[in-house]
Amino acid sequence: MGSGQKKEKRKQPNFKAILKDKFSELLFNSSRSIKDTNRLLIEVSEWLTILNYSNIFCAVPPNVSIEDPSQIALLGSSIIIICNVTGEPRPKFSWYHNGTLHLGANEDVLLLSNIQQIQAEIYNCIAEKVVANISSNDAEIFVKECPPGTFFGSGICSLCDIGMYQPEKNQQKCIACGSGLKTSATGSKEVSGCAGKSHLYLQKFDKGANI
């Protein structure tokens, strides 16, 4: 083989399928001779020895946990849930939402895009190893909706500050009125709420006159 050629990666045998076939033959074939039974027992012993040297069992005891067990997401935004796993070898992953398998999710990071209310509540990941399937702690996802005149931050909806407005719902920031313009109060929903100082003074004067 030339130095520029890559070594062909050896495909690992399907130990589970092989051992299942061997044990099935041992257990369910009553017409087998003593000689064939001895042969099968030797083959099973050999495959178990190969399994041991292949290190497919847990060299390091596994530990599975969700990194952030509680998250609040803005409706329509995206979040990730991270499944932290220690131990060797690396397991296969699956995710569950309210006890139902989340199809197509087989990595240690779960991305939820354009999140909706139906995607709220409980998630957990399962680390699948040869010796056991290990479940993480629960992660609870809350989906928040923010009305116009507010913005989403740190898990809550807050009113737009004076000098800011927001006509749309479920936004992560407010819009500045512009130079020299202010709103008369927090939580303005329309740009029409932005005005100059003299106009705001007249608004306050009119309110006082009507008391």
Keywords:
211 residues; alpha+beta; six-stranded mixed β-sheet; three-stranded antiparallel β-sheet; 3 helices; 15 strands; 23% helix; disordered C terminus
Helix-strand blueprint:
Layout: H1 15-28, H2 34-54, E1 60-66, E2 70-74, E3 79-88, E4 92-97, E5 100-101, E6 109-112, E7 121-128, E8 133-135, E9 139-144, E10 150-153, E11 156-159, E12 164-165, E13 175-176, E14 182-183, E15 194-195, H3 197-209
Parallel strand pairs: 2-9
Antiparallel strand pairs: 1-3, 3-6, 4-5, 4-7, 7-8, 7-9, 10-11, 12-13, 14-15
Condensed summary:
Helix content is 23%, strand content 32%. By secondary structure, it is α+β, with helices and mostly antiparallel strands.
Q: What does this protein look like?
A:
It is built from three helices and 15 strands. The termini are far apart. The C terminus is likely disordered. The longest helix is centred in the N-terminal third of the chain and has 21 residues. With 211 residues, it is an alpha+beta fold. Strands 2, 4, 5, 7, 8 and 9 form a six-stranded mixed sheet that branches. It has a three-stranded antiparallel sheet with strand order 1-3-6, with no helix packed on it. Strand 4 and strand 5 form a beta hairpin. Helix 1 runs antiparallel to helix 2. The chain is rod-shaped, with a radius of gyration of 31 Å. This is Ig-like domain-containing protein. Pfam families: Ephrin_rec_like, Ig_3. InterPro entries: Growth_fac_rcpt_cys_sf, Ig-like_dom, Ig-like_dom_sf, Ig-like_fold, Ig_sub, Ig_sub2, Tyr-kin_ephrin_A/B_rcpt-like.
